[in-house]
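$ ./design --mode recover --in tokens.txt
reading tokens...
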């Protein structure tokens, strides 16, 4: 996975999910990219593991930036977003939170949501 999104290209999304390391890191990713999908996950979560390849495909095939937050390592950040279960998927467009879903969604559903916020 790519360690950060600072490649100097605001218009291109990373082709691999980004590991979010702090609130400031998430804020920087939101500010740098138009559409961001954040997956709040846990290593012990079965549905989270099933969702991982779907998110990798979205990162490489869509204009969205996909980011991941390990809720066990980033408990405060998860709490800030009201994460009560994993996986929780939070969508940002133009730096603002636009949707939040708890539970694994299909690749088609995720792609549809991303397309709603991209040109």
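writing sequence...
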């Amino acid at each position: 996975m790519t360690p950060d999104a600072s490649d100097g290209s605001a218009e291109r999304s990373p082709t691999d999910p980004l590991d979010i390391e702090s609130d400031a890191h998430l804020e920087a990713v939101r500010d740098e990219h138009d559409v961001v999908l954040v997956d709040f996950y846990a290593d012990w979560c079965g549905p989270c593991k099933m969702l991982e390849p779907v998110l990798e495909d979205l990162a490489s095939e869509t204009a969205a930036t996909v980011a991941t937050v390990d809720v066990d390592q980033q408990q405060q950040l998860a709490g800030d977003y009201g994460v009560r279960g994993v996986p929780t998927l939070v969508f940002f467009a133009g730096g603002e939170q636009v949707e939040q879903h708890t539970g694994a969604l299909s690749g088609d559903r995720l792609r549809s949501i991303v397309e709603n916020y991209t040109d």
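exit 0
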